[in-house]
Design brief:
By secondary structure, the protein is mainly α. The protein has 8 helices and no strands. The mean pLDDT is 87.
């Protein structure tokens, strides 16, 4: 082994471990990919109410996981904003105020139902390894 190899081995910077917010974001990305299998994206694009239901569903998952990681409200909102920007390809200004959106998730029965279902489906997918659970979002969206 060369001298550079020995020093490199001992003094090499180790990559920093991911932050809790990064972990939550990574897990939510995997969950969103799993839920997308059951969603008709074109149909979703035509109906803003369904977009809000999908947002509420995923916010339920984000909220659940945020509690598991002891994230504060600002960190949870940050994960949600990244989710919206990533999966809805829209700037946050088009979704309205985040606080208004979250209030709607809690106060509007249809959106609250999706938020609660998102938390439950996420828990089953993440903790109980129910790989097909995320497909329930597509089934919920088909209900009229």
């Amino acid at each position: 082994m060369t001298a550079g190899g020995i020093f490199g081995k001992f003094f090499r910077k180790k990559p920093r471990p991911p932050t809790a917010v990064e972990d939550v974001g990574r897990i939510i990305d995997r969950f969103a990919t799993a839920t997308s299998m059951g969603i008709d994206r074109e149909d979703l694009g035509r109906y803003p109410a369904r977009q809000y239901q999908v947002m509420a569903f995923h916010y339920g998952a984000i909220d659940y996981l945020s509690h598991q990681y002891d994230l504060d409200e600002t960190q949870s909102l940050g994960v949600f904003v990244v989710f919206i920007n990533t999966y809805f390809s829209m700037p946050i200004t088009e979704t309205g105020s985040i606080s208004e959106r979250l209030q709607g998730f809690r106060e509007k029965p249809a959106e609250r139902r999706f938020m609660e279902a998102g938390a439950d489906v996420f828990r089953r997918w993440h903790e109980e390894n129910e790989r097909r659970a995320p497909l329930e979002l597509g089934d919920m969206l088909k209900e009229r």
